[in-house]
Amino acid sequence: MQSIPMERTQAQIRVNSFVRSVYNWMAIGLALTGVVAWFVAHNEPVLRFVYQARWIFFIGEIALVFMLAGRVHKMKASTATGMFMFYAALNGATLSFIFLAYTMSSIASTFFICAGTFAVCSIFGWVTKRDLTGVGNFMFMGLIGILIASVVNIFLKSPAMQMIISYIGVIVFTGLTAYDTQKLKGMAMSQPAGLDAAVVRKGAIIGALTLYLDFILMFQYLLMIFGGSRD
Fold this sequence. Notes:
Layout (H helix, E strand, L loop, with lengths): L2 H39 L2 H9 L1 H18 L5 H19 L2 H4 L2 H24 L5 H24 L2 H31 L7 H30 L5
């Protein structure tokens, strides 16, 4: 009879350890992105290089995300970790231009708004008993719509359309944050006892990447709404 509570305790320890690892790696990724963005923004030769090679950086980021998501199980844990950190650094370089476009105070205030919104959505995704699969699918379709509208707006250059896209983007990524957190919970609770530490690390890196993307994209859309221009 005593073995059942002990097994539950050990399972809870595994869940807590996995979730803590996911959020720790996510926080490390965000911190690295912020440091790199600040450094690039305040180093004119590097900033000029990033601007000239911005499409290469953009394609590289997309390639890294797809490689991590599709081949993480075939990688070493150290390789997956290194790729995630490299992606966070590349993303920091491309995000450096926000320091030129927006005031520091508006960037800081928007970051805290994003952090609070993310925390609330993540907590909801963790504690809710409702299956959020339908919400996740709907939000994913919304994400596709945002991508199409953003491409169209590259040619239209409509500020009104960009603002609409930004509001929809915030809604989409608040929903995806809750959905992805619920998926993370399911992943954590389904881990068998004695699972190889390298496998656990790779799962944590994928979870961190998913939540990192939710946070960063939500932040960018919020910045388009609340950010104060330097002009």
